[in-house]
Structure to design on (462 residues):
């Protein structure tokens, strides 16, 4: 008898396996190393119209099978479409090995017709959408989504900001994040919370400019039963209560009306809130991170922002430079956005051309990272069959000033300047007996900036 036939003491095991396969109504077939059928489930036999297929070559029983080749190649075939008796089905074929030697192969029909596969696919897609929905709802409620690993940038400015923010995360002082719209202020707020000891507790975001003034107080502090017409019978918790033991992020704090600034100041001073319609104060334990694209010191002079509140919020100031002032961050940001958006949109991207990167670096980016993301998304919608993002895929305000000759001239000039800077750093390093601190002082740059330049020029001075 050929291999994979059950003999002698193994007869009982064969009968047990036959019983299991038949009762489970599985369509399964097993062949030996010669491609002969050694076992076949009852349902599969009935479909193929052969009550005694054992001992026959599999190709004599099952049309369009490939099991006889699986025992030769040893390579599995998973989820393949095969046609048997004018019926399309999905099957898998797996080699059977013993001591690294192929002794047979197993074939199993996963779906007996494609309608079953499509039905299962629809159910899985529906479940995935439901899961994504609930994950999204959870993320927008009380959790911070980002960490410092999500902040991309090679500039000394960004690297130094990350270090400062990580230190600030360990403390509990209030933080004011400033910078133009689209620079990533919220990203830093999320990251600070996730790095802090409050990370296991809520992170609640409030956009002060998006909530009508008449509703802002109840949104922040909540209200008691019957506080006003239309109020919920059971009352409502405010954002400060929801953020208990965690962090509340007050975005666009510069747009908060003066009367609310006074109430917020009391929360900062007394560590307690007064609900609308309430008669008692309630203690809260919340860290405040605020952000604005306005110059609050000017707002204080203009009388539109309270000076005492400004100093309370601005214990630790984090200022994010605009993208036009840190052009070395544009390329890593663009690459990260291409990866993120291409995954979301289901678009394959091979690469972005050097000319396209140059065009992005030459643009002034008044909308900062948010504008860069929009430009990348537009390019993905226009990408050609070569799957390369080019200058032509950018809006005219970016692509209009680009010329190949200008790019080459700028590239050559940059190479010359980089070579001079690299040589200057090396000479200064030798003159200061390989002391990095003295080298940075002589070059009048920070040690963080020096380390960044050493990395960019691939200089190993250890």
């Amino acid at each position: 008898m050929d291999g994979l036939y059950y003999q002698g003491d193994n007869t009982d095991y064969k009968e047990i396996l036959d019983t299991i396969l038949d009762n489970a109504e599985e369509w399964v077939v097993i062949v030996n190393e010669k491609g002969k059928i050694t076992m076949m489930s009852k349902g599969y036999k009935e479909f193929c119209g052969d009550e005694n297929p054992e001992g026959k070559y599999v190709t004599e029983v099952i049309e369009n099978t490939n099991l006889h080749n699986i025992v030769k190649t040893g390579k599995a075939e998973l989820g393949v479409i095969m046609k048997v008796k004018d019926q399309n089905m999905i099957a898998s074929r797996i080699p059977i090995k013993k001591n690294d030697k192929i002794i047979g192969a197993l074939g199993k029909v996963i779906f007996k017709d494609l309608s079953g596969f499509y039905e299962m696919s629809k159910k899985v897609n529906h479940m995935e959408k439901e899961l994504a929905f609930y994950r999204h709802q959870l993320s927008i409620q009380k959790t911070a989504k980002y960490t410092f690993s999500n902040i991309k940038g090679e500039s000394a400015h960004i690297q130094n900001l990350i270090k400062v923010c990580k230190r600030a995360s360990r403390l509990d002082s209030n933080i004011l994040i400033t910078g133009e719209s689209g620079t990533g202020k919220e990203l830093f707020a999320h990251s600070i919370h996730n790095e802090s000891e409050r990370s296991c507790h809520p992170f609640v975001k409030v956009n002060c400019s998006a909530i009508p003034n008449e509703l802002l107080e109840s949104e922040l502090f909540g209200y008691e039963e019957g506080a006003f017409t239309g109020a919920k019978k059971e009352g409502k918790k405010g954002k400060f209560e929801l953020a208990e033991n965690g962090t509340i992020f007050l975005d666009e704090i510069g747009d908060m009306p003066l009367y609310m600034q006074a109430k917020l100041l009391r929360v900062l001073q007394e560590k307690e809130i007064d609900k609308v319609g309430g008669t008692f104060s309630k203690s809260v334990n919340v860290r405040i991170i605020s952000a604005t694209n306005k110059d609050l010191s000017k707002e204080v002079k203009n009388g539109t922002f309270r000076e005492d509140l400004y100093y309370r919020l601005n214990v630790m100031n984090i200022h994010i430079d605009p993208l036009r002032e840190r052009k070395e961050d544009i390329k890593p940001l663009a690459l990260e956005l291409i990866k993120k958006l291409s995954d979301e949109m289901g678009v394959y991207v091979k690469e972005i051309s050097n000319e396209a990167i140059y065009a992005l670096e030459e643009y002034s980016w008044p909308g900062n990272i948010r504008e860069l993301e929009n430009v990348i998304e537009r390019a993905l919608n226009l990408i050609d069959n070569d799957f390369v993002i080019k200058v032509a895929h950018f809006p005219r305000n970016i692509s209009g000033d680009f010329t190949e000759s200008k790019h080459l001239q700028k590239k050559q000039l940059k190479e010359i300047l980089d070579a001079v800077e690299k040589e200057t750093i090396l000479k200064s390093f030798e003159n200061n007996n390989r002391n990095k601190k003295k080298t940075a002082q002589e070059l009048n740059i920070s040690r963080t900036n020096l380390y960044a330049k050493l990395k960019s020029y691939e200089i190993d001075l250890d």
Summary: The mean pLDDT is 85. Residues 114-142 form the longest helix (29 residues). The radius of gyration is 33 Å. The first strand starts at residue 28 and ends at 32.
